[in-house]
Amino acid sequence: MSEQRRASERRVVIVGAGAAGDGAAEALRKAGFDGPVVLVGRDPHRGYHRPYLSKQFLRDELPIDRVWLHHTDEYEKLGIEWLGGRTVVAASRRDSSITLDDGRTLPFDVLVLATGGTPRWLDSVPRLANVFALRTLDDGVTLKQAVFAASRPLVIGAGFIGAEVAASARMLGKEPLVVELAPVPLGRALGEEMGEVYARLHRSRGVDLRTSTAVTEWVAHGDRVQAVRLSDGTTEEVDLVLVAIGIEPELAVARDLELPLIAGGVETDETLRAAPTVYCAGDIAAHLHPVYGRHLRVEHWQVARKQGQAIGQAIAGDPTPYQELPWFWSDQYDVNLQYLGQASGFDQTVWRGDRDGDRFSVFYLQDGRVQAVLAYNEGKTIRFSRDLISRQVPVSPEALAAETTDLRELARHPSTG
Ligand SMILES: Cc1cc2nc3c(=O)[nH]c(=O)nc-3n(C[C@H](O)[C@H](O)[C@H](O)COP(=O)(O)OP(=O)(O)OC[C@H]3O[C@@H](n4cnc5c(N)ncnc54)[C@H](O)[C@@H]3O)c2cc1C
User: Quick check: pTM over 0.90?
Assistant: First the structure.
């Protein structure tokens, strides 16, 4: 009882009102926390589904009211004080307070840091009227109008956002040019072999994908980029440019708080705690994952959402290790990709199904144990592979590859596989 009362007297301040911050605020209330909750976000809009911005929303297949995470009055109903359009410009652990860009100082007992990331930019890219990045809803609205008006959009970078925007543009009948420095698209996330699969997919759908290529010169006319010269010696006319070369984690507030940094983000323990009164979630969190025994920093929607929710529950109750395996998806054309786990350092891949066909799975192994699984139009493999990854049991590649193998059974009795 006294524990309960102490919990409700604490003031929780959440910095960043995106996937993770919004998830934390909502989960606090769902878990019965009745103390003050303040949610501060630089974005003037209430929470929204960012992943739609490169897919259905960009193609105008989804009205804006389906993009919001909540109804207009949800924060009010939940008793969450939402300070939208406000940036935290300073923070101190010693004073247990944050300072907003309007000069106000807010004290906290517990701070949740979920500041996400901002799109990376290259100094050589001119900031002209038809050159864009994509992160916020406002970016998405502007890019949508521009894509509809364009005929030859140029996408710099074939990571997930670049590849999805290129696919969307192609689905709208545009003639996208994609320029990627690496030899394959998505190679950093999925490895060379899957990168080849995606290269074939995009090219077969009519995207002009130039890999191992860079822009060497920007040709502008007035306030617009009109053409680019490429390292393959060609010159291409373009009427829109999207710079999609990844994000920089937003670490300014974390630095002010003097939090430890690792793996490009804020170092947290297994319970997502970065300091005794500070939790951290989402794109900036380098979480000590109990299954992998190392710090993972993942830039994906469901991870941010679930970490935020776990923090809300931890503050309202007891902190427990966060054990969820990272999971993400990407939709390009009619291909649904899902990926469970984390495979950096894999030393073997095992393919299940027809790798030249339109549905298959890939297991990523290290020392004979499954670290991650990728499903290409084959979502059920993901559902059945959780235990294989969580238990980290050694399994035979032949058993994994055989489509007749029951993967859940294999996790329970690996030696029989
Ligand atoms: C176009 C697009 C498509 C995507 N598609 C997918 C997908 O298909 N699948 C997938 O798994 N993931 C996808 N993602 C990634 C996913 O959206 C992110 O991983 C997720 O949003 C991260 O959540 P977060 O809460 O850490 O950060 P965010 O959602 O970025 O929220 C952070 C918030 O913090 C605010 N903030 C930052 N600094 C301050 C400050 N000093 N003061 C106040 N507020 C601050 C920011 O304004 C922002 O609103 C996509 C991302 C984009 C941009």
Answer: yes
